[in-house]
Amino acid sequence: MQRRQLLASALSGAGALSLTGLPLAAHAAAPAKPLKIGFVYSGPVSDVGWTYQHDLGRKMVEKEFGAQVKTVFVESVPEGPDAERVIRDLAGDGCGMVFTTSFGFMEPTIRVAPDFPEVAFEHCSGYKMARNVGIYQTRFYEGAYLLGTIAGRMTKTNVLGYVAPFPIPEVIRNLDAFVLGARSVNPKVTAKVVWISSWYDPAREREAAQTLANQGADTFYQNTDSPAVVQLAESKGLYAFGQDSDMSRFGAKSHLTGNVLNWGVYYVHKVRQKLAGQWKAEDTKWGMKEGIVQLAPLNPVLPKDVAASVEKNRAAIVAGTLLPFAGPITDQAGKVRVAAGQGLADDELWKMKFYVNGIVGSQP
Q: Structure pTM?
């Protein structure tokens, strides 16, 4: 948005008149300029996954604040030099807030922020902060654990499949939680992983799921963004869980539930801070308790006792009495990572790089 400059005339005397003939003092103050908010997306808003959910959050901000805000977004931004250019352009074009919504935007956000000290930057899933850069993540692993408890009960082959993008802590944390949940109800379960080096690539996601099916997997989870894995499961009479958004329409029989993110609750919270002049850079990690991590509707094919168990465990997670990463937890090599009666410290949780016992294969 181009800046507009009002040409002011120099008027003298206490009785100066406006162009309408009324005293200037009789005119109401000009309405406040809306807060312009920019969103940077790694994928297309049509991905039905990660970016789609972030864009729903943007729309929730518009609905909540109306004329007080103006939002803009740039989609399908590569996580490289282009990201810095896009972030810098948004800040330079009048955005008072900029949300950068993918791990790979961390360094570009940190580089741009010092040049725009009055802009509030918010980076998703990273770990670097600055005076005007806050970070936000979700406890997505809480939902992943619950999906695992379903998978452990529904699998017939005891082999689970996981389609993964990049080996960053967020992705490994979800995988580990999924397997821990599954093995909590079925110790015979193992999980196999295919890494595709992309957040959104429907063709490669489908190929990965097919590879896993060929290796005996009959229940799939993913940390990628399209519904291709769910669609593959539907075509083969297998089970799957959606990620980021409700993908049930792509698998009426296969989609058991999904791990869904409601980013809007966080975006509304931070925009309200900014509008009130109370924004500050914070390290925020919300989960089911705050309503940012949710489950898609449970498929009626689930046995009643399985569905009841999911609801019971969900309530326990919200209450803080069920911790997905409570010990004892061992890794692939049999090393104790979390002792019995202990919980994994947050510092280790957010830097997680190890596979828990039950995952087959090695990381790329």
A: 0.88
pLDDT tens by residue, the chain, 364 residues: 333 333 333 333 434 444 344 444 444 555 689 999 999 999 999 998 999 999 999 999 999 999 999 999 999 999 988 999 999 999 999 999 999 999 999 999 999 999 999 999 999 999 999 999 999 999 999 999 999 999 999 999 999 999 999 999 999 999 999 999 999 999 999 999 999 999 999 999 999 999 999 999 999 999 999 999 999 999 999 999 999 999 999 999 999 999 999 999 999 999 999 999 999 999 999 999 999 999 999 999 999 999 999 999 999 999 999 999 999 999 999 999 999 999 999 889 999 999 999 999 999 9
Q: What is the dihedral of CA 264, 72, 198, 347, to 10 degrees?
A: -50
- Written as six digits, the tokens of 39 are 């969103």
Per the document, the length of the chain is: 364
Amino acid (1-letter code) at residue 199: W
In sign, the C-alpha dihedral spanning 179, 145, 270, 128 is: negative
